[in-house]
Each structure stands twice: as structure tokens, then as C-alpha cells.
Amino acid sequence: MALDEDAVAGLAAKFAVMRRVADERTWRVYLGSEARALGRGGIAVVARAAGVPETTVAGGVAEIESGELGALPPGRSRRAGGGRKRAEAVQPGLGAALRELAEAATRGDPVAEITWCSASLRELERGLAARGFRCGKDAIARVLREAGYSLQGMSRTIEGKQHPDRDAQFRHINEQLAAFAAAGDPAISVGGKKKEQLGPFHRHGRAWRPAGDPVRVRDHDFPDEELGKITPYGVYDIAANRGFVSAGAGCDTAAFAVNAIRLWWQREGSIRYPGARRLLVTCDAGGSNSCTGRLRKDQLAVLAQEAGLEITVCHFPPGTSKWNKCA
């Protein structure tokens, strides 16, 4: 049967509407019913108008003529066993080969139920191809999940050498914080932050803006020699649960770090704690907060004299800066 172009276009318009609301099975059966109504050659005409393979339309016709429209369980679009076979079912030995490749790159506690593989899906795909197997990365990911693997990032849990007095140092810091809090004296946690480039550079995160009007930034993050970088330094008031950030265009030196504390005291600390005569500072033990740096001690002494404060400094043990509340 042959239809003119206008008739085919009319069918195509009708099919476009139905395709938006029909699931796979309803769509297949509907096309089959239209093909049967057209008679001889209807399968080819419907397939052309709907933009689907003729096998799809023929499948709908066969399902109608078999009288099995109600044979499928609710929620299913095909009979059990229908659809493309899994890669491991078509290629015997693929599953064993993949497990062998993954085992060589497996990490994790042997007692734990969850493990992970350090090889990427692309690397496993190339390894399987070298052994004569064809398997895409999506199928590889599925097989790995079924084998108990999961996609995970790295976890910073391995620590360096611990000093025998580390726990005692933590207890001392905790006791100092409790004592200052009970007396109503300020206690702050300080620390330097990651340097950032000044200028219209890309930043992580999103902001609400009118549609189609994103913030325009440079297409490359090459350093700007004229603008340079900005150095943030954070001061966290533990009792008040408030943060204060001082930013400078210079280096993260001891003088810069102490000046950030000075700015906090002038703009917030002295107002929030008007009768305070002492201040507790907790920080890590390296960089501008070095526990051995003489310049930092000198600058803290200058600040103590200016503000009329007795300043106590507690350093966290090396390698434990993540316990710093300002980190």
C-alpha cells in the first residue's frame, strides 16, 4: 500500500503526540494497530511515519494477532527473556576475566564487605579487549557492582607517626577551652586558607541568576601577574560560633596572621567581650602559625601589649590540623 506525502505527514504528526504519553508496550501495540488498519504494506508506511524500525511495528502486529495483550504482568513491556542479552551471557568467560583484572587492582579491608578497584572502567575495558572480549564501561560497572564493588573516592584516614604525648596535648587544649568558656573569656581558632587568584576566574558552586545570564569568567585560569593572589586567614570565635576572615594580597607570614587576629579583636572581639583581660588562641603548628617561629611570638607580644590582653596559645600536634575548628 502506498500513501501520498500529506497522508504520511499526518500520520507522523499523530504519532508524535502519542509517543509523548505512551510507554514502550503501548507504543508498540498502537503502531501495530495502525499498520493493520492500513492493510498490505502498512508496516512499512507506519515505520516510516513513526521513525522506528519495521521490526517494532511488526512486533506490535504479532502481539495483537496472537491474542496475548493481557499475558504480560503489570509493569512489564516485554516477555521474560526479551531484549538484548547481557555481555557476560553472550561471551562465556567474560565475567571471570573481569574479576581477574579487578582483583589485581582491588583495595580495601579483606574483612569488610565493601571493596573498591583502583583501575578505571576504561582501563578494565582495554584489558578485556586485549583478552578478546567486547564489553562497554556501563556493563563493566554493573558487573563490578554485582560483585560487591562500589564507586568511592579516597579517604584521608592514614596518619603519620604519632607523638606519645599527643593525647595529653589534646586534653590540655580541651581543658583550656573549657576554662576560658566558664570564665566568659574569648577563645578563638585560627588558620590560613587556600590562596585564590584575583580577577574573573572560575569558581566552584552556583548562584541564582536570570536564565541565560551566567557570570562570565575567563576561559583559562592562567595567573594574572598584575592582580596576583589573595590570602585569606580565618578567625573562628568558638563561644559565639562566628567566623571572621581577613584577606590580604601579600604572603601568609606570621605578621599577617597576627594582624588578622588584631583586626578581629578591634572589630568584633573587643565589642563582644568588653571586659576580657585574656585571650586563648588555638591553631596548628606549621606555616604562619609555627610553634617555633620567633616572629609570631614577637608579634603576639606586641598585640598583647596593644590590647591589654594575656594571650595563651595552644598548638595542635603536627598532622592534626583537621581537628582545628577553623580548618
Explain the overall architecture.
The protein has 3 domains: 62 residues; 60 residues, no CATH class; 131 residues, Nucleotidyltransferase, domain 5, CATH 3.30.420. 43% of the residues lie in helices and 12% in strands. Strands 3, 4, 5, 6, 7 and 8 form a 6-stranded mixed sheet that branches. A two-stranded antiparallel sheet has the order 1-2.
Write the layout of secondary structure elements.
Blueprint: H1 5-21, H2 24-38, H3 42-50, H4 54-66, H5 87-90, H6 94-104, E1 106-107, E2 116-117, H7 121-130, H8 137-146, H9 166-183, E3 187-192, E4 196-197, E5 229-237, E6 242-248, H10 254-272, E7 278-283, H11 294-307, E8 310-315
List keywords for this structure.
alpha/beta, Nucleotidyltransferase, domain 5, 6-stranded mixed β-sheet, two-stranded antiparallel ribbon, 43% helix
Report the sheet-strand fraction: 5-15%
Order of helices and strands: HHHHHHEEHHHEEEEHEHE
CATH architecture of the largest domain: 2-Layer Sandwich
How much helix is in the residues? 40-55%
List segments where confidence is low: pLDDT < 50 over at least 5 consecutive residues. Answer: 108-114
Number of helices: 11
Topology-level CATH name of the largest domain:
Nucleotidyltransferase, domain 5
